[in-house]
Each structure stands twice: as C-alpha cells, then as structure tokens.
Predict the 3D structure of the following.
Amino acid sequence: MPDGQIYEFPPPSPLQRLTWSACAHAEIAAVSAAILVLIYIAGFAADAIDRSALDACNERIMRPTGVS
C-alpha cells in the first residue's frame, strides 16, 4: 500500500451487525436469566420454610401445655 493512502473497510452486512449485537447482549441476557432462576428457586424455598414454620406453630397451639 503506498504511503498516504488509507484503506477503508466496507460497512458490515446486516447479518454481521445482528451477530455483533447478539454477542454484545448475550452476557447481559445470561446474567438476567440466572437472576430470574435464583428468584424463582428462592420463592419455592421461602414457601417451604413458611409452611414448616406455620406447621410448627399450629402444633404448639393445638397441643395443651401445662393444663392439669
């Protein structure tokens, strides 16, 4: 290439632009999906804990204590 000339790359095709955009957003999408899965699992865990805690409270209430 002779001195003083600048090579200009051709503009990217629409498919290349779409691919670059998808790659740029892939990490964000993966993190968002992981957060949603953790929230979903935490909901099930909280529901199970609430039920077991309520069951324990109900057993204490139903059982007479210290009555003679």
Notes: Residues 36 and 64 are 44 Å apart (CA to CA).
